[in-house]
Amino acid sequence: MPRYSLLDIYRLLPGTNCKECGLENCMSFASALLDRKKKPQDCKPLFENEKYKEKREKLLDIILPAIKEIEINGIKIGGEDVLYRHDLTFYNPTAIFIDVSDTMNTDELISRVKKINRFSIFRVGQDLKLQGIALKCKSNDAVKFGDAIINVLEHSKLPIMLCSFNPEIIEIGAETCSDRKFIIYAANAENYKKMTEIAKKHDAPLVVYADTIEDISLLTQKIMEFGHDKLILDIGTYPEGSGLRRTIENMIKLRRAAIDDRFKPLRFPILANPSVVWLYEKDYYEACMKESYIASLLMLCYADLMILHGLETFEILPLLVLRQNIYTDPRVPVQVKPGIYKIGKPNEYSPILVTTNFALTYYTVANDVEGKIDCYILVLNTEGLAVLPALAGKKLTADLVKEHIEEYKLENYVKHRYLIIPGLAAKLSGEIEEKTGWKVLVGPMDSSRIPDFIEKEWKKLNLQ
Ligand code: SF4
Fold this sequence. Notes:
Layout: H1 6-11, H2 26-34, H3 44-48, H4 53-63, E1 69-72, E2 75-78, E3 95-101, H5 106-118, E4 120-123, E5 126-129, E6 132-136, H6 142-155, E7 160-163, H7 167-177, E8 182-187, H8 192-202, E9 206-209, H9 213-225, E10 231-234, H10 241-259, E11 271-272, H11 277-280, H12 284-300, E12 305-308, H13 313-326, E13 339-343, E14 352-356, H14 359-369, E15 375-380, H15 387-392, H16 398-407, E16 418-421, H17 429-436, E17 439-442, H18 450-460
Parallel strand pairs: 3-6, 3-12, 6-7, 7-8, 8-9, 9-10, 11-12, 14-15, 16-17
Antiparallel strand pairs: 1-2, 4-5, 13-15
Helix pairs in contact: 5-6, 6-7, 7-8, 12-13, 16-17
The protein binds iron/sulfur cluster.
């Protein structure tokens, strides 16, 4: 559970309801803080008046996320506060970086970078994309690494991770990046002093690698003593046999220590590196599949950032869908805007399908009819509920249908007066006809059968 409640936050505000924060009262501000829609600093009296010093410090202490939030070129990782999504929500989806290396020839490198840039899958109203490029220095040659950096920067605006355990290579790479932000991979027990200097100089997030909890927490403490705290934890990804179990256990222990115990040295995002699968698995398709399922497992075990090698759609798609599901806020149903949507090229005799504004419902209906029929979809504002819960909660009613017909002026779109409602909403048909004056056809229970339904039932109407 989150370690503080709305009331806990409210008690630490001035309580004067002065509205300087732009909200009606301190309780609304407490709620906005809880939802991360406002920052504590937005309450000016709290920060300007010394009599609130104690409250301010306590508030800052409790409101700070258990896991540090790190931002790189607009991509945020970490910032989490709970172990289980249903306790509150998860905020920042796992960022997926795809590796490239400085031993690739230039054409191969550029073509891979371009493929990473354009990788995008549209699902439930969102473009699912990749977040960054991990450039591995396999040559151990600073010149080659520098050339590869220039090529990546020239062909992509995505965040870049510079990967080498050699501080000299990283130092030259960091200078080459100059005005672009980057992540450094990685500091270990041998190189951490020099890596920390470079990370501090460029204000770059630094991945810290060690393969036990004790070693990684000692290392982060030392790095923090040197004055750098934009850290990301890599406790090693071992894909084979008991190594995978150890990886999962370690990642869970890291996150529990950070959230349950608020153990400062471990309150950082976690990096997983499923790309190591390719070191062990030589069969191309086996490697893609294995990398995909290991990445899925590690995403479920709190990986905030991961490096992958495979770039096949069949490998990445399940991961992106899983990520979309995990990081959807359980408190807010995913919604589409209510209104009238065109599918294909509808005309004034085309059918109007009625559905709800729960995104999954709308996109299921739209995908089931797209390319098969031309029609309109009237999306009702059921506050993001699907058909059955909307009926049960009285969010889908004949009055609502009437309001939407009037608001979106349906009569301007078609010459007929027919609506097709979902099969699950059949019981509303009579009431809708009475209240709206439109005839109702009860559609199928399953939207995949709508095209057949149109072929058989709609055409019987002989509208034109
Ligand atoms: S500015 Fe601060 S004191 Fe004033 S209403 Fe907002 S939260 Fe309350």
